[in-house]
């Protein structure tokens, strides 16, 4: 059976994270799920809003990631907000631990996606933005949009 060479299919995305945080570094991690959770995620019933990751006893767990119960799961469904373990090497975990011990850094899941039939998490080391940083980013985005609009109008003539 041939490997799937198509690009990764994004199943859920945390769009608010890029608005609320400066992304310093990101990495791919596996996630430990049960069968009904996998089926629910593939159906698009995952939500990464307000989710974060924390390091406990040398392991990384994603907290507040909501995966809706699978409709046909019955007794096999788990708690939608349970902490789920991420699968990383010890070296990667210790590097992330070094980041999170610094003031203001946290671990945020940016997206869930399929890679070779497995569900992966894009985990980012992030630092929180202040309100004035968010306003500056919005002003820059609006200025860029205006410049692009002006360039498009000039190219018509």
Automatic annotation (TrEMBL):
Tell me a GO cellular component: cytosol
**Which example biological process does GO assign this protein?**
trans-translation
Main location per UniProt? cytoplasm
- Tell me the GO molecular function terms: RNA binding
**Any one Pfam family match given in the protein's UniProt record, by short name:** SmpB
Q: Kindly indicate whether the keyword Cytoplasm belongs to this entry.
A: yes
CDD domains (alphabetical):
SmpB (cd09294)
The residues forming a coiled coil are none
User: Which keywords, in A-to-Z order, does the entry hold?
Assistant: Cytoplasm, RNA-binding
> Subcellular location, in the record's words?
Cytoplasm
Q: Does the keyword Transferase apply?
A: no
Superkingdom of the organism of origin: Bacteria
The entry's family comment says: Belongs to the SmpB family.
What does this protein's UniProt record list under function?
Required for rescue of stalled ribosomes mediated by trans-translation. Binds to transfer-messenger RNA (tmRNA), required for stable association of tmRNA with ribosomes. tmRNA and SmpB together mimic tRNA shape, replacing the anticodon stem-loop with SmpB. tmRNA is encoded by the ssrA gene; the 2 termini fold to resemble tRNA(Ala) and it encodes a 'tag peptide', a short internal open reading frame. During trans-translation Ala-aminoacylated tmRNA acts like a tRNA, entering the A-site of stalled ribosomes, displacing the stalled mRNA.
Give the protein name, as stated in the record.
SsrA-binding protein
* Organism listed in the record: Clostridium thailandense
What's the name of its gene? smpB
